[in-house]
Amino acid sequence: MNKEIKVGVLGAGSMGSGIAQIAATQEHQVVLVDLNDDALAKAEASLKKILARLVEKEKINEATSKSIIGRIKFSNNVNDFNDCGIVIEAIIEKLEVKQQVFTQLEKIVNDDCILASNTSSLSIASIASACEKSDRVIGIHFFNPAPLMPLVEIIPAVQTTEETKNTARALIDSWKKVTVLTKDTPGFIVNRVARPFYGEALKIYEEGIADFATIDWAMKELGGFRMGPFTLMDYIGNDVNYTVTETVFGAFYYDPRYRPSFTQKRHKEAGWFGRKNGRGFFDYSEGAEKPEPNKDEQLGAEIVNRIVVMLINEAADALFLNIATREDIDLAMTKGVNYPCGLLEWADEIGLEEVLLRLEFLHAEFGDDRYRPSVLLRRLVRDNKTFY
Ligand SMILES: NC(=O)c1ccc[n+]([C@@H]2O[C@H](COP(=O)([O-])OP(=O)(O)OC[C@H]3O[C@@H](n4cnc5c(N)ncnc54)[C@H](O)[C@@H]3O)[C@@H](O)[C@H]2O)c1
Predict the structure, then answer these.
(1) Using CA atoms, how far apart are residues 329 and 344, in angstroms rounded to an integer?
(2) Running DSSP on this structure, what letter comes out for residue 274?
(3) How many A from CA of 359 to the centre of ligand 1?
């Protein structure tokens, strides 16, 4: 039944073409629209290359590869969305542009077509407000690369109906993705809760406690994270990561917990974006020497403890403010950014009293509101309870 829904994707960039690939693999007819013909040609070529690699690795056969690409119509005409059951927008991250596009889309599609946005940082309510029938607008946030990352955040706006929410979620579940439900607040779950992974690592560096390589070594080898924060920022791009941090900071009315770092700002200003241009926190040019970390276990543990309690505090606060359920908060961080363990589960393991103690120490030491412990954490400790 589900497969009969024709899926429209607007924007054939890295996210849009990934989403089109998923939907076509799940046997939907797909229309992938981009106004830029070069982007369309690039998306088609790159998709063919990805499918050829999957055939080579014997993940799919030649016939399946052909039928996947055959189900995607590459088009530069938004009118081709006219018979879609859902259109997922993945264009440039600018509110005015997205609003214009949603107003235009509404005139093309049927009344029961769901209009979704893959935005990372804009409010779904503000995008929905561009539509007359705003109750069919929802956020469906994939992670990069979309075909490989299992998590999808489902974000109903205040205007969204239960029916839109349930239909959208059921559809993405049927694509074998892990969906979590989140409130329409800055950063949703992942991009909010993960802020200290970058911010606290940068602060530890700025205080002269350790260098990039040592912080990365500690988080990877002792903390069990897939990548150290500086390697990850270089991978995401310091331009992109810094902008997200700045956006989230503003969106939270300048709460010091989300304060951006001058170190990253200067790297961005210098054009040291990371892997994509050969230089970020680390040097990726040919023959460049990799800096050696200081493998002092005590120092490493101090670094991991500080970043992890800040992450836990953020997760606790998200739960306190009903951004999502405790299960979805933990799932989001393990499936969206590969954390070794859910943060609330991790907090129970460390012991909430210990987590609170470490935060209170930082709060007293710095006198900075950035370190204020979440009210929920205090209450659980007071009542001798745990998250699970
Ligand atoms: N890149 C990521 O890691 C990531 C992750 C999750 C969500 N997102 C979000 O997904 C969206 C797309 O990001 P991306 O990285 O794929 O961008 P991108 O720059 O790779 O692709 C955007 C595409 O949209 C096209 N486009 C721009 N305006 C258009 C319009 N009016 N009509 C039709 N096509 C138009 C461009 O030609 C381009 O091909 C953004 O909202 C972004 O915040 C990105």
Answers:
(1) 8
(2) B
(3) 38
Closest residue CA from atom 21 of ligand 1: 13
The residue to which tokens 């693999």 are assigned: 25
Question: Domain 2-181 sits in which CATH superfamily?
Answer: NAD(P)-binding Rossmann-like Domain (3.40.50.720)
Whether 7 lines ligand 1, by a CB cut-off of 6 Å, is no
In one letter, which amino acid is 33? V
In the numeric block, which tokens belong to residue 115?
A: 């209009």
Beta-strand relationship, 137-142 and 151-156: antiparallel
- Best residue among 21, 32, 120, 191 to mutate for probing ligand 1, ranked by most atoms within 8 Å of CB: 120
Q: Quote the pTM value.
A: 0.95
Q: pLDDT digit string (tens) for 130-169?
A: 999 999 999 999 998 999 999 999 999 999 999 999 999 9
Element spanning 37, H or E: helix 37-56
Written out in words, the top-level CATH class of the domain with range 192-382 is mainly alpha
The residues carrying an active-site annotation are 120, 141, 153, 191
Confidence of residue 121 (pLDDT cuts 50, 70, 90): confident
120 lines ligand 1 (CB under 6 A): yes
Ligand 1 atom at minimal distance to the Cα of residue 15: 16
